[in-house]
Each structure stands twice: as C-alpha cells, then as structure tokens.
Amino acid sequence: MNIQQALEQADYDLSDASPSATLDAQVLLTHVLHCNTAHLLAWPEKQLNKEQTTNFLRLVKQRQSGKPVAHLTGLREFWSLDFFVNDSTLIPRPDTETLIEFVLNKFNSDQPYKLIDMGTGTGAIAISIAKEKPDWSITASDVSFDALDLAKKNSKHHHTDNISFTQSNWFENINANDFDIIISNPPYIAENDPHLQQGDVRFEPQSALTSGVVGMDDIIHLCQHAKNYLTSGGYLIVEHGYNQNQLVLDCFTNNGFTLIEQSRDLSGHIRMTAGKV
Ligand SMILES: C[S@@+](CC[C@H](N)C(=O)[O-])C[C@H]1O[C@@H](n2cnc3c(N)ncnc32)[C@H](O)[C@@H]1O
Fold first, then answer.
1. Domain locations in the chain?
2. Helices 124-132 and 97-106, packing angle to 10 deg
3. Is the pTM of this model over 0.90?
4. Is the Cβ atom of 140 under 6 angstroms away from ligand 1?
C-alpha cells in the first residue's frame, strides 16, 4: 500500500465514525511515518513497509471505534505548541485560545503580573501564557495529581521556568490575596447533557467535564471565592458553555465583579467572561 492508497482507504473507513475523516487519516499517517502533512502530499506513491501498514491500520481501527485522534498520537496542538495528552484530563480545544488572546490584549503593559490557571489539565493555558510572558509569575493548579504530572511534563517540554505547580481542590491550597489574574477553563457541562455520549468527550474524564445539574457548580464556586485570592483590581476570567453566557454574567454581577466583558469563540458564541474585583 502506498501513501495515497492508505489515505484514501482510511478516509473511507472513517467517514461514518468521524466528522473529520480526511484530516484524521492524515494526522494518523504522519504519526506513523514520523513526517509532516507536506511529506504525504509530496510523496503519494511512496510505499509503506509492513510495520507501518500494520500500525496505521491499527490506529484507524481504534479511531473507528471513537477513540480521539489526540489519544492515539498522544499529542494535540494548542496555541501553535504541541502538548502531550492522556486520559487524565481534557484534550485542549481551539476555543480556549480565546482566553489566551483576551489575556494578552488586556494585560499588555510591561508589568510582571501574577496569574493562576485553575484546573490546568495539560497546562495548555498556563504554558501558552508563560511562553508569551516569561516575566510573569504563573501558578498552575489542578485537583488531579495525574493531570498535574502531565502539565509538568508539558512545561518541561516547552522549557517554561516561570510556572509553579500546586495540587488543590480549587482554592483549598492557594494563598489568599495573591493573584492579579485568576483564569480557568473549569468543568461546565451539565451532568445529563446528551453531548457526553458523542465524540471525543466519551473518552475524557467526567471530572474534567461535568459540573452539577446545569454545569454551573464550579463556575459559581470560582465566582464566589475568587475575590479572596485576587489582589485589589484583579481579574477573574472563565471559559463556559455557549448557552451559559447569561448565567455566568449574572454570577459575576451577583458576586460583585465590575467591568464585566464577554468574548466569542471561533464559531461566534459567547464562551468567555471576565470581570474585575
Ligand atoms: C475542562 S478541563 C480544562 C483543562 C485545561 N485547563 C484546558 O483548558 O484544556 C477542567 C480541569 O479542571 C480540573 N478540575 C476539576 N475539578 C477541580 C477542582 N475541584 N479543583 C481543581 N481542579 C479541578 C480537572 O481535573 C481538569 O483538568
């Protein structure tokens, strides 16, 4: 089998199982061949050896059964950086880049801010900001030791030496009045949301996804307690669901935040809320 035949066959085999069959096939084949997509396009006639063929067909079969591409390759790109991923936490999503853009636009002075990324998971938010702002002092926290190990591995991979890691159930092990910015992409899916039975989320831990009956429990907790951990004038910034913008706005308002701003994701949905104490 050559590269073109492998891609065509996988595209066909994945068409029912995945909304992105062509891309999935390319990503899996680049993973097996240790090459980039340009190589696949440049050398369509190149033959796969027996081991490469076996490995590729095995991955396609796993993808057919629903396993996320990122779990098959162990990697996902976020903010143009490669992150190791595993089943201890969420696979980073492009929508979360909205939070990074907001932070970089809003806090664009030379001041070395102190920021905490709560529920850091792979460390995607903390590490992306740490790369952009090497002078900032960044803390990354998560309740999951396994997720923290993964975030530390990613931090080491990206040589970010301005991040410290803390295991904490939200604010439990965090010092009061210490941060200029608290940022979080917390769990925010409703427990019985039917989307939990579809796509990649079936393979991600509930602890990273769900938050009570309407998905608001963790966001409410963050809103209620953040002011005790922010410096005067500090900001809380959270990601939330596309249908939670009014609930989150009310939550920020009821907890005394001012200058509240909301941002849209790449699909035009309001997915981020920020407010000042
Ligand atoms: C939606 S994932 C976000 C992961 C990562 N920040 C990202 O944007 O890709 C939520 C994360 O919150 C963590 N989490 C859940 N409950 C928590 C709690 N009580 N305290 C701290 N972190 C928690 C989960 O372990 C998970 O890593």
1. 3-66, 77-276
2. 30
3. yes
4. no
